[in-house]
Amino acid sequence: MNALAGFGDVREHRAATRRRAPAVRRVSADVEPQRAGALHVLTCGSVDDGKSTLIGRLLFDAGAVHADQTLALEKSARTGAGTLDFSLLVDGLVAEREQGITIDVAWRYFDTSARRLVIIDGPGHEQYTRNMATGASHADVAILLVDARDGVKVQTRRHAAILDLMGVDRVVLAVNKMDLADWSQARFQAVERDFLALANRFGFREAIAIPVSAALGDNVARRSASMPWHAGPLLLDHLNSVPARQTRAGGDLRFPVQTVIRAGHDFRGLAGTVTSGKIERGGEVIDAVSGQRARIKRIATMGRDLESASAGQAVVLQLDTDIDVSRGAVLAAPGAAPAAVRSFEARLVWLSDQPFRPDRGYLLRTATDLVPVSSLEIAAHLDLDELTERPATTCVANDIAVARVNLGRSAVVERYAQQRDTGSFVLVDAVTGASVAGGVVAQTHAPESQQPSEAFRLTRSLLKQGVGADLGHDAASERELRRRADEVAILLRGAGVAVEIEDRQEAAGMDAATVWLGILAALSFGYAAAIVFGIV
Amino acid sequence: MSAPLTHLDLLEAESVHIFREAAAQFRRPVLLYSIGKDSTVLLHLARKAFYPAVPPFPLLHVDTTWKFRDMIAFRDRTVRQLGLDLIVHINAEGAASGVNPIDYPPSVYTDVMKTRALRQALDAHEFDAAFGGARRDEEASRAKERIFSFRSEGHRWDPRRQRPEMWRHLNGRLGPGETVRVFPLSNWTEKDVWIYIARERLDVVPLYFAAERPTIERNGRLLVLDDDRMPLRQDEAVRPRQVRFRTLGCWPLTAAIESSAADLDGVIDETLSARVSERQGRLIDHDEAGAMERKKQDGYF
């Protein structure tokens, strides 16, 4: 089997070369073009469940193992059962064995007959929560691995809870080591029953169980002769058929601005990736924070301009009026824009070995913005064993906390359930720069419902007289002023003073749509709470 | 009306996104240009990321003085055609003291002429971020590499200091003394690189295509003689062979493969059915177990 037989771009290229030079050889043109996007697969389970063996087996059976690696494999020690030790294909860092990397996610890439598979593997033992959450933030689907003899364990439940939190809504239970469970259908069905009961407690879109033997290859890429009773899909076939998130269409337009590109005297473009929905030439967009509007004059990419761009595409937008929008802004359609918020509820996974400290300065890294945090209030921890919440005020590595985040200035964040990219964030230590936590937004608060804060207010006039005294009144000066204000807020926060920065368009920027969205957000609070507590 | 995005479209967009994130977050980035196929793709993506402007950073080539002549010619032609700003850095000390890949063990040579040379150049220009063309699929120790890979003072790669990367959010806030290597091609494979080169009709160094070249066989590997600086051993005879390269580096350390793939299509065919992993041709990686990882900890790419 040609490993890349169905690769869409190969055919594209073939077509292009044929036009240019008719005499070139052709490969794999007899296969249907497949446009299935790369599928990102998270593997969850412990070494004991045979996870490395399963990954190695997938690579091997898909023909993704090179001859020199196979040779090394054959020269290496066999497993107890006398089979090749496929787990050796998934070796990693020397340092991992010697000293241990903090957060540890390994990426493997290979091609099946239908698509690219990206295996995201977070080898984790006691540190699995943060590894798994990190991997899950990239995953379309997760393989939960259990030993057929053990069945669904407390660990499986924890894994499912983390997947649910991170929005991975397609789950495969690989019931492994069926060879050691006498290929028993009754045993598989018992495990499957437990798993489906568990899955029902979460909001998964799809949950299926497959009986496999990774060591022997049964039901991985080859139908098992030992388990003729299994009528469901093979693991590899199933992975070939799951739709990738990146190619799912729909959603409201979101365009987080990464940077401003200037060329010549008259070109000023906003560079970014469409994270949701679709943008069209001539369409109107609004900057959620300032409320400024403009129309799209040009969607530029090198080579050609586009009429439209959809989720996943990186483009440069030229607007018809030169509104003051720069990095950190999120462009949206006027009727469906997110609200700028100063406070929200989050679920966050603590990643750092340094515990949370209320007096420490933190920054919020959103899609493209970096916002000073005025205070972070930990309210509870999610207990993954009991699937409940219990009150807490501290936070250490691998804790999943329910927290309220108060921002030093307005920024665009929205519910993760609605928007992945603008609904998630990384919490950054202001001094070391380390990523201390990753989180998802559970609920935003309408600006008018936010309690009057005790924070020190950095007004614009104060800033202009102080750190901004040397600045002028143009757009670049304005950006520099905002940047310095952020840094002042961070410094003061580090000295124990919570700070709020006055927004420039604070009053003017609040248009009807923003207010209305705020009310909607408040109404949906009950719904969000139900989801959050629904795992109880 | 628009065709669905292909796998390569999405990879391209991701790389463009990474370039822009880095350019927006770092004060003084540089693109490490090593002339090979990955650098060719890297440079192309950098141009796409900032179009219609030119990339807002220079190129840096760490020249060991042992690159194939074809590579240097290609480098100079590329820079001239695209109007780019190129910095070439040679470790003058190393060159003066005669460190070369023939008389010195690969580990010493690499350390002096590549690793230290790179550090010198980064320090001299005060670059805080350097784009590189490394891919996670190249080698086992790279499978866990980050897109923003942090280096502490002295350019050391400390596994404990690496930041988890979630979603598309790349955190480039530097801690004291830190610099960053940025890898926009992290999620590309060798196949992706070649198919993209074909799709975008990019020019690559001719050494990637099979041609008759003067070769010797040494330690079971084929070396192409690029000049007369390498003395032959007694039993060695120069023989013309039809060969090409899968990766390019310093010519005495880069093994060729026998091949008839004389054009892009041939190379793609061969890559699609490759049965040997890509870096087998790099002699330095075979020096000792965990070689690549040790080099990385010392600041090599």
Describe the overall structure.
The complex is a heterodimer of chains A (536) and B (301). Chain A is of the alpha+beta class. Helices cover 24% and strands 28% of the residues of chain A. In chain A, the strands form 5 sheets. A 6-stranded mixed β-sheet of chain A has the order 2-3-1-4-5-6, sandwiched between helices. Chain A has a 6-stranded antiparallel beta barrel with strand order 7-8-14-11-10-15. In chain A, a hairpin with a 4-residue loop joins strand 18 and strand 19 (388-391). The longest helix of chain A has 20 residues, at 475-494. Chain A is globular, with a radius of gyration of 26 Å. Chain B is α/β, with parallel strands linked by helices and 301 residues long. Chain B has 2 domains: 7-193 and 290-297, HUPs (Rossmann fold, 3-Layer(aba) Sandwich); 204-286, no CATH class. Helix content of chain B is 33%, strand content 14%. Chain B contains 8 helices and 10 strands. Chain B has helices spanning 7-25, 37-50, 69-82, 92-96, 106-125, 190-199, 264-272, 291-297, and strands spanning 29-32, 59-62, 86-89, 129-131, 148-151, 179-182, 211-218, 221-224, 239-244, 257-258. In chain B, the strands form 2 sheets. Chain B has a 6-stranded mixed β-sheet with strand order 3-2-1-4-6-5. In chain B, a hairpin with a 2-residue loop joins strand 7 (211-218) and strand 8 (221-224). In chain B, helix 1 (7-25) crosses helix 2 and helix 2 (37-50) packs across helix 6. At the A-B interface, helix 1, helix 3, helix 4, strand 2 and helix 5 of A face helix 1, helix 2, helix 6, helix 7 and helix 8 of B.
Radius of gyration over C-alpha positions of chain A, nearest whole angstrom: 26 Å
How would you sum up the global shape of chain B?
globular
CATH architecture of the largest domain in chain A: 3-Layer(aba) Sandwich
CATH superfamily of the largest domain in chain A: P-loop containing nucleotide triphosphate hydrolases
Total number of strands of chain B: 10
Return the CATH architecture of the largest domain in chain B: 3-Layer(aba) Sandwich
Low-confidence stretches of chain A: 1-34, 93-102, 505-536
CATH topology type of the largest domain in chain B: Rossmann fold
- Please name the CATH topology of the largest domain in chain A: Rossmann fold
The gross shape of chain A turns out to be globular
Please provide the count of β strands of chain A: 24
Q: Please count the helical segments of chain A.
A: 12
Low-confidence stretches of chain B are 284-289
Task: Please report the distance between the alpha carbons of the first and last residues of chain A.
Answer: 47 Å
Oligomer category: heterodimer
Spatial extent as radius of gyration of chain B: 19 Å
Q: Major sheet of chain A: order of its strands?
A: 2-3-1-4-5-6
